[in-house]
Amino acid sequence: LQLHHSGLYHCTGRVASLWSMSNRVTLTVHSECSALGGVPVSTAPGGQVALGDRLVLSCTVAVGTGPLSFCWHREGSGAPLGISPRLELNHIAENDSGQYRCRVSDGDSVAESDPMNVTVL
User: Fold this and answer.
1) Would you list the domain boundaries of the chain?
2) 51 CB contacts (<8 Å, ≥6 apart)?
3) 88, 100, 81: which is closest to 43 by C-alpha?
4) What is the rounded radius of gyration, in angstroms, for the C-alpha atoms of the chain?
5) What pLDDT, in 10s, does the model give residues 75-118?
């Protein structure tokens, strides 16, 4: 399952010549790397970084309830890059260029930062 699979589901079937439909069920998919709906999430700094240098990105949540979990992703990369409010990448390589996002979760809802473009020079 992926987050976009959340929604209303039902079954339709036929017994003899009678069609029948089940009650609708709401499915909500949560991610262990999920954030807070409607809550601003910001990241900094992005931009350009020199080959071999260190990149540090920060994720800030304006408000939240309870303990928050963080997750960093780079577009096109499947595995999470980090699970703390700060993402530190040492010895940047050319393939580290791309769009980075931070997701924050309070366990019930999810928010995601705008994409941050990082270019390795």
Assistant:
1) 41-120
2) 92, 93, 94, 120, 121
3) 100
4) 20
5) 877 778 888 888 888 888 888 898 888 888 877 777 888 888 88
The Cβ of residue 60 has, within 10 Å, a number of other Cβ atoms equal to: 13
What integer pLDDT is reported at residue 56 of this predicted model? Answer: 85
Tell the burial category of 68 from Cβ atoms under 10 Å away from its Cβ (0-12, 13-18, 19+): middle
How many residues are there in the chain? 121
Indicate whether 20 pLDDT > 50.
yes
- Tell me how many degrees the CA angle 58-59-65 measures, rounded to the nearest 5: 145
CATH annotation of 41-120: 2.60.40.10
